[in-house]
Structures are given as C-alpha cells and as structure tokens.
C-alpha cells in the first residue's frame, strides 16, 4: 500500500509591531522576566502547529486488492505510521482503520509522545503521570475525585444519590464513596450490567451505573477545560461542555498553558468565580465544587451563587402527564430508553445512556426489538452464483467452475435442516455452463426454481405469491417488486433470490456459522478453507475442478455433457472481452461502488464469459452480479441496464449490433477482424465448391475417347498454377491467417 501523510498545518499570523510604549503583559514580573516569558511563548506559537478539528493527519494513495476476505492484512516493511492502523481484507480491498485513541475533544495535543498516534496531552499530579480522560479517587477520601483533561486536573467532592428503599440500601463498597441499591432498577426499569443511566433528564450530571447487580448513583462536577469559554460547546443531552478544536504546541517546561495565557510555576488563577487553579509542574490543578442534587424540576430552580437552588413550590401528592394522573412515587415507562417517577407532584425521568459502538467488518449496527441501544450483530452469510458459473462463497472466496452436472451448493451438515442443490447446463458448449435449476429441500418441503422463474413445490407448479408451512416454519415465495427475480424466504432466516436465468444468491443467518458445507463453503469467517471437499481435504486454487466434483450428486443422467473437459482459462480475443466488459470500468455507471466493492473479480468473470457465449449477452451477468452486491452494501447505482442495453430477464437473441455504437462499451475494432475472417471463410467454401464441380467434370471426361491421358495447357484438371497454389493454401493454412489482399498500387517516386 502506497500512502502518504496529507495533514495540513496552519501557523498563527504574526501581529504588526506597535510603536507605543510596551505595556506590562505579565503583571508581577520584572521587565526582563517578562521579556524572557514573551520570547518563550512566541517560540512555542511559531514552532508549534495548530490543527483544526477534523483536519488531522490522513492517508491517501492507491488501494490494494486482496483475496482472503475478512482476514487481517499484515503490512510488512512499512513506515512506522502503519502501527497505528489495523488492516483487513473487505469486499476485495485492503481496508485500514485508525486504532489510535480519539482526540476529537482535546484542546492540547502532545506531539512529543514518540508514536504515530496523535494523543491528548496528559497531566502530572503528585509525582504521577495520568493520561487525558483518566479519573481517580483520593486513597484517604474516596469521595474526593480527580479527572485529567488536557493538562488540567479537576478536584471535586462527589454527591451521592439513592432512589431505593432503606431495606435495599447497601453500605459503600471498599474504596468507594456512595452506598448502593440492591438490584439494578431505576423507576422500575431494569439497567443492564455495566450500563449507565442519567438519573434525571433535568440534571445530566447525576449518573447511575450497574455493577454486580448493584446500582450506584452519584453526581460530579464538570471538569475544568483548558480552552476559552467562547470555544466550548455543550450538547443538550450531555452534562458537560467540550473543546471541539485541537491545538498542538511545543511544551514550555515549568509553565502552564491555559486558555490563551501562560502561567509560571505555583501561580494561582481563577478561570471563573467558582474555580481556583494553581500551576504545578506544568499542570493546572483546579478545585471546583459539585452542586447539590435538587429534587425540583428546572422551572422551579433559581440561581444561588455558583449553584442553583429549589424555589419554594407547592408540594402535591400526584402528577399529571398527557391526561393521565400518577400518584406520588408511582413509576412508568416511556419506552425502552426512558422511565419516570412521580416525586412530590414533579415528574422525574431517567434516560439510558447508549455507549459509542464501532462494529467490525462482518458486523452491522442494529436496533434489537424492545432494547434501548443499538448493538453490533453478525451479518448474514451470502453466497452468489452467476454467469459461466462463478461462485462467491459465504466467506467471500471467488472461484469459477464449469461443470454441467448436479451439485450440492449449500447444506446444514450438522443440523440437517436444509440442503440446496444446483443443476448446471452446458447449453451445447464444449466447456461453458450456466445454472439451470435450483432445488431447496427444507424438512418435508421441496421447492424447485427453474428457468424463466418457474416454481414447483413438491413437484407441482405454483403461481406466485405462494406460502406454505414446512416443519412448523412459514415459507413464502414471491416475485420482487421490479419483477426481475423470485425471492424465497423461510422463517429460520434462509433466503434464496433467483432471476430464472443463472443468477442465484443464498443468504443464511449468523446462527449457521461453522455448520455448512458444499460449493458455498463452510461459513466459518475464513476464506482460506472454502475449497474443502466432501472428503475434508482443502484443495488449492489449481484444484477447483476436483473440489467441485467432490460435491457432485445424482448419476450420469444429471449431466448435460457425456464428457467433461477440465476447465482452463479461455484464450479468446482480448479485444473482444475488453469491448464487452468495459462498462464495469466506467465511473458514470458503477463508479459510486468502486470504493466499496472491488470490481476486479467481476471483470475477470466477464472476460471469461464472453469467450464462449451462446446467447450473446453473457457479459450482462457480471454487470448484474456486481450491481446486486453494490445494492446489498447500500450503494445506489444509476440505471445501468438501460445504459448498457442489458434488460432483466431471459434473452437469447443478442448480437454484436445490440451493443456496437454504445458509448459505454469498448473499442469494437475486433469486429472488423471478425468480418474479414468470415469473408475468407466464405471464399474458401466457394473455391471448394468450384473444385468439386471441376472434379466431377474431369471424371466425365475420362470416359470420352482419348480424353483420359490428355492434359490441357493450363495444367492438372484444368487448373492453372495460381489456382493450384490458392487451393493448397486454403487447404493447409488456417483461415485465421488469411486476409484479403490489398489492391496493387504503384509506389510513390523516390526523391
């Protein structure tokens, strides 16, 4: 992989020098000391580098192809920067993701950490180093907590809160400040292990957490931030503000950088009227009080110095919401994420917190029914068959196999719940074949998907839509909305999509992992062993024929050819395949998907299919397979079928003229060569017919008196020497080497 850093750095503009008398920039210091501090600050600003949020180092270059789908790709002999990235093969490309910790809300970056990752500058406190974001408690007073955020340590006293009855209240655990409630429930709603809950949507800083089936609730003050107040942002559903911009400065030993100021060692300062800070060993150590937990709603609160307080309000014994009256201490759910309680006439609601989730390559983010937070679930396995059959297994392995018999495509080899058989047809060709029918056996149900989307259930042809119960599970068969395919869905999660002309896609849920066998592989997450035969032996890339034939089912009558020829890479005219397969490289047609799905396997399949194509439009199968996979990945493509003249459905009468002249296809010059060859072939047939007629006339002449020993002056059998030479060439030289002779021309005079 060839990549380079494309980060852009911005330097602060220099201020014009003023002619007025110098003013004291740092009160309390002598002019010489002030000058020294000013020089240090200017050096830090000029040599430091400021990076806007989101404009950090990035990678650019040419993406590499890969074949071992889903596996990690080791980047050997690469620059040190790649130690901060993890790469794996996904959709035919080497995809790399950043493994560095996030620095989106870090105001001061540490560029001297010696690694390729950008890190937020940490803190030094009482002889210990702490990373930014770290939280810890005082060993002697667990209620006194500290938090480090980009060279600033905030010290506070946390407040405890409890909603459970006294008989459920447990004393604080060793080393902890607040008591716990037995059982992880808040307002009657269960809290999952490790999950955090905002105990009140009116006070997002009051947080409860479930650990060991015990619920602990407490409130902490927001940490002091090093960025100016004007640069801070606060989201409505969060407790504390953030610093959205990243800045990187050279370290100033013994000094504290806070907001836009530099403070010497042991200097005290107040960022606001409620916070006191001291510069200690390059870290700003700040004390800030935690505001008390209020039982009144926000509309009944009023300012009182640094913290609000509850104003005098009427205490009632019931609450009303949307016309429903709730008694005091009564709880109710407002959905899977929110629950409420009536507290002295005030409605107090708790909100579940959903953690940030990053799914792996074989997972997708989904919202389970009845749950509050989305979670990563394994994606269904998908096996695709298309063209002169090309296979993409459940684990992403590509291979081609042109057998003309019946084969086991996929089967639940452990549970024996289903098996799918594929019947190929040679279509009168010597080596090519296409999928003809698909048969699904699901318990006591047998479904046959045939040509032109004909469907049989237990041997009887049915009309669509159709539904049936098999082994206690519902099975539905219907045509898709666009009419281009038949979709079979089973209650167990198995689906089959068949277009009636050779394209098939089988999907199985993740519960079938490591349970399958057949041409579609074992669905174990690795493509390296997808060519495992029925005998358990893993075949190599050059043994696809032996692997596929090990899954052959049925007798000799199931084959459309009496004799199979070992498939080899076709050696047809390269210009012909370039012409037909060029649309896959056109950005206007498939370019939106090229970054998500590598088209090289589909191009190779297209080049193979056009070599021996009885229908004239075999290249369209590769287009359709690529477009289908792009759609499954969520990529919307333009109307490529109309643009390439590849309509959906069955078509056997396509000719070169159907695509010649289309702007999206390649160079059609190969067709002129083909025309010359056809003309030579016709000339050869014409001369052969003339030769046969003269031979018959010569046989008649032998029976005339004095005719059998007479040779005319032209030569043998009435042919002159030029005709004999032409006849010899036509008989012994392949027609591919014959071209029409250019007319004789007089060469131009030499000057």
UniProtKB/TrEMBL annotation:
Superkingdom of this protein's organism: Eukaryota
Composition bias, Basic residues: 673-682, 697-706
InterPro entries per record: Kielin_Chordin-BMP_Reg, VWF/SSPO/ZAN-like_Cys-rich_dom, VWF_dom, VWF_type-D
SMART domains linked: C8 (SM00832), VWC (SM00214), VWC_out (SM00215), VWD (SM00216)
Signal peptide: 1-48
GO molecular function, one term: BMP receptor binding
Biased composition (Basic and acidic residues): 710-726
SUPFAM superfamilies given in the database record: FnI-like domain (SSF57603)
Annotated region described as Disordered, given as residue ranges: 1-25, 667-726
Biased amino acid composition, Low complexity: 683-696
Gene Ontology biological process: imaginal disc-derived wing vein specification; positive regulation of BMP signaling pathway
Every VWFC domain range: 182-244, 254-311, 317-377
Keyword field: Repeat, Secreted, Signal
Domain VWFD: 381-560
GO cellular component: extracellular region
UniProt keyword Signal, yes or no: yes
Subcellular locations according to the entry: Secreted
Protein name: BMP-binding endothelial regulator protein
Lineage: Eukaryota, Metazoa, Ecdysozoa, Arthropoda, Hexapoda
